[in-house]
Design a protein that fits this description.
Belongs to the major facilitator superfamily. Sugar transporter (TC 2.A.1.1) family. One of its GO terms (cellular component) is membrane. It is found in: Membrane. The chain crosses the membrane at residues 24-44, 84-102, 114-132, 138-160, 172-195, 201-224, 286-310, 322-344, 356-376, 388-408, 429-449, 455-476. Keywords: Membrane, Sugar transport, Symport, Transmembrane, Transmembrane helix, Transport. This protein is mainly α. The protein is built from 25 helices and no strands. It has helices at 22-32, 34-48, 52-58, 60-68, 82-108, 111-131, 135-163, 169-173, 175-194, 202-208, 211-222, 228-233, 237-248, 254-268, 273-276, 283-298, 301-314, 319-347, 349-375, 386-404, 407-418, 421-453, 457-475, 488-492, 510-517. Helix 7 crosses helix 21. The two termini are 30 Å apart. Bound molecules: beta-D-glucopyranose. Beta-D-glucopyranose is lined by residues 42, 177, 180-181, 184, 296, 301-302, 305, 333, 408, 411-412, 435, 439.
Length: 518
């Protein structure tokens, strides 16, 4: 079957014993808190950059432009400002560079080290931002925030996928996305209250509060166990075995342990993982490391996340109503992620991807038609009837839900589970870098796009959603229920990818193949 790309989970493969122990669950929740800092930043930036006192102090020209623009009727172009979007998106460039450095630290010093470093640098950035009295401090702070996010996003998804028993890997990994959505929601709510502070220093609180999620994450990370995979990779075999016994909660973990050692031995032969990524046999993994984050950003979700208040204002809500609607979509984002956590290890990744994509596509078309009918190309809706505006919010929320149970969490889960140990750290950095480049790109060009594409903006993203659904349908094999160090076989059994992957290359099945031959 060509389109299936699906391999029944566990088919013909190994099934390591092991329970979901309280230890693993708590460790995954603590590590998953890394998503809080990323989410907090996504949620806080848009709100802060719309606070007049913040603009007046750091971006006076933007402030003046917005003041002068009050009477403008073209809603599409009202908020277009390059300086401001540059401020928002500069962080993503820092994160991109940092994730490449983090790749070495995660590999050589362990996943935990990158997590602790990530949280600490983020914390430093938050303090600099809260205390900023010039643009330099502000930008420097944002660079540290970005570096922190680069380290965290590089290490946490790997940590979760390695520590989780394979049958629960999907749900446990998605805790990361769940905390991202909590961070976004928490930030939106705080902005809402801090913006009202008399005296105009509320932005300091908004930016400074980022230390709270950062401290939760740093303190938690100190108590985390390192993953057995990472211990083995660094030659600490005995410790790794004890760790595996403790986290799996069973008296015998020999089979899994031996496979981890085999994977690590194979990976030790590889001197330069970056150069290695170019090899033909890694073509499938590298393709996904690039395309999954690219497509995730091209769903257009961050248009809503960064600019929800602006977007809702554009479609006719007042100031407070816009923020409230943004909070509602934030809540939908958060709750819908739970749907994915509850189902991903039963229905699999492919079905969630395809359903979420279809749902987003339908909403994007409806939203485009609704905006086109009322705003036309002039961008002047006159008075938007209440029912009309509410229906628009409802469709935006259904769209957000579609993303939240598909591309949101799966965009972090799937890359973290498909890379073999020898390229895992480097490939995950590619995943984070591509994610950051396109987050940057969307943040940078959205206001420009709204101004030039007008209501056609959502059609642009809808076209990508169609392409990504077709891509997933034909090219993504199902990864549900397959142990992480045994993932090589999904490519060998896939109608397209099998041409890239030689059978003898999988260290953990080598024995099986030889036995079968005998
Ligand atoms: C994405 C972010 C996005 C967030 C929304 C994450 O998976 O990487 O770019 O803002 O989901 O919930």
């Amino acid at each position: 079957m060509v389109g299936g790309g699906g391999i029944g989970s566990g088919e013909g493969g190994k099934e390591y014993p092991g329970k979901l122990t309280a230890k693993v669950f708590v460790a995954c929740v603590v590590a998953g808190c890394g998503g809080l800092i990323f989410g907090y930043d996504i949620g806080i930036s848009g709100g802060v950059t719309s606070m007049p006192s913040f603009l007046k102090q750091f971006f006076p020209s933007v402030y003046k432009k917005e003041e002068l623009d009050v009477g403008s009727t073209n809603q599409y172009c009202k908020f277009n400002s390059e300086t401001l979007t540059m401020f928002t998106s500069s962080l993503y460039l820092a994160a991109l560079a940092a994730s490449l450095v983090a790749s070495h630290i995660t590999k050589l010093c362990g996943r935990r080290m990158s997590m602790i470093l990530g949280g600490s640098l983020f914390c430093l950035g938050a303090v600099l931002n809260a205390a900023a009295n010039n643009v330099l401090m502000l930008i420097l702070g944002r660079i540290f925030l970005g570096i922190g996010i680069g380290f965290t996003n590089q290490s946490v998804p790997i940590y979760l996928s390695e520590l989780a028993p394979y049958k629960y890997r999907g749900s446990l990994n998605m805790i990361f996305q769940f905390t991202i959505t909590i961070g976004i929601l928490f930030a939106n709510l705080l902005n809402y209250f801090f913006a009202k502070i008399e005296g105009g220093w509320g932005w300091r609180l908004s930016l400074g509060f980022a230390v709270v999620p950062a401290l939760i994450f740093i303190i938690g990370s100190f108590f985390l166990p390192e993953t057995p995979n990472s211990l083995i990779q660094r030659g600490r075999l005995e410790e790794a075995k004890e760790r595996l016994l403790a986290v799996r909660g069973i008296p015998n973990v020999d089979e899994e342990f031996n496979d981890l050692v085999a994977a690590s031995d194979a990976s030790a032969k590889i001197k330069d993982p970056w150069w290695n990524l170019m090899k033909r046999k890694y073509r499938p993994q590298v393709t996904f490391a690039i395309l999954i984050p690219f497509f995730q950003q091209l769903t257009g979700m961050n248009v809503i996340m960064f600019y929800a208040p602006v977007l809702f204002k554009t479609i006719g809500f007042g100031n407070n109503a816009s923020l409230m609607s943004a909070v509602i979509s934030g809540l939908v984002n958060c709750l819908s992620t739970l749907v994915s956590i509850a189902t991903v290890d039963r229905v699999g990744r492919r079905k969630l991807f395809l359903e979420g994509g279809a749902q987003m596509f339908i909403c994007q078309i409806v939203i485009t038609i609704a905006i086109a009918l009322k705003f036309g190309t002039s961008g002047n809706p006159g008075v938007l009837p209440k029912g009309y505006a509410i229906s628009l919010v409802v469709f935006i929320c259904i769209y957000v839900a579609g993303f939240a149970w598909s591309w949101g969490p799966l965009g972090w889960l799937v890359p973290s589970e498909i890379f073999p140990l020898e390229i895992r750290s480097a490939a995950q950095s590619i995943n984070v870098s591509v994610n950051m480049i396109f987050t940057f790109f969307i943040a940078q060009i959205f206001l420009q796009m709204l101004c030039s594409f007008k209501y056609g903006l959502f059609i642009f993203f809808a076209c990508f959603v169609v392409v990504m659904n077709v891509f997933i349908y034909f090219f993504l094999p199902e990864t549900k229920g397959i142990p992480i160090e045994e993932m090589a076989r999904i490519w060998r059994q896939h109608w397209y990818w099998k041409r890239f992957v030689p059978a003898e290359d999988d260290p953990t099945t080598k024995g099986n193949i030889e036995m079968r031959k005998a």
